[in-house]
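HUMAN:
Could you generate one sequence with tokenized structure?
ASSISTANT:
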Amino acid sequence: MVLHAHTTMADMSTLLYFRHAKRHLALYAGPIGVALNLLLMWLVVKKSTPTMKSFKKVLLLTCLTDLTFSAMNIVFVLTLTVAGDTYFCIIEGVFGHLPPWLTFVGYDAFLYFVYASVSNNTVVVFYRYLVVCRSKTLNACLFMCCMGIGWSLILSYIFAINYQFMTESADPDIHSKLTAAGYPSNGSFHNYVSCRVNKLLGFSTYAAVPFTTIAYLAVIVMSFAVQRKFKRLSSLLNTEERRFHNEITMILWVEAVTPFITVCLPIYYDISKLIISNMPFNWFAEFIWLLTLIGPSFTAIFKLISIRAYRDYISKSIYGLFFKRKTTMNVVQISSSQHAQRSSVPKRRSNNVTVN
């Protein structure tokens, strides 16, 4: 998600507004995402129905990925921006601006998780395609091997990008470019990493774009194949199986749309911006960052609402908590009134004896 600094005053004002909102949102969205995905993982392990058995490892993997990404966003809040012909990565977070070596750590983690969300979703859809269309189930070893293929491609891409940053020559105009990007600098600000755009353009054009495009084309094709097969088999499935497959279909579409918005669109926009330098909406990357921050929380809430076994457990737990509390209060009130009535009976008898 790259932001270009050829901005008008209105664009710069909007840019700084979203950048400021991003810093504050991360402090809330990160912990909420961690808590929701921990709850979801517990429900997957403890409350999944027998019908859901084959998809438990899929749900656990996506929950673990979202949980880790949410935790990372508390510490590493990235700003990726282009000023002139130079690409900058600046990281903030709960500890403020981070030094260059930690900036590399945060940047690499960011690249890994955003692209892993694309590859993981592709493997998950492929797994469901095998189950529904081919009547095959991958064991844990084969499932992780499929995941490993995507992860190895991502790590290779990250290594190549890091090499370009590390071999970058000194730029005498670097601080004026930082100022143009919204980070005023008199030469004392060094908490960033930078690289010339022309060194990275080839990797984005011939690696990032094909990777995401092929992955989403595969997701679309396999999803339609699953839907066609599912319609043919729906009459042979019981009510619980049909409901669960409908729930999984909705979840997988949400899992696919989320990284498409937060990963694919920014990549396509970045490539277009590098080719057409006067494209509008320079604040687009910062706005997308807000969606990226809330993405893990949104998908967790959607799963909790969509899957009936989890939804019923949560609603019953909440209802039981308040109903039990209300019942306990009523019992205490009844006991108190009965005790008061008992204690008043001897006194009335005592008074009658005294009068006689």
Notes: The chain has one domain: 3-306. Confidence is low (pLDDT under 50) at residues 1-6, 347-356. Strands lie at 3-4, 77-83, 86-92, 193-196.
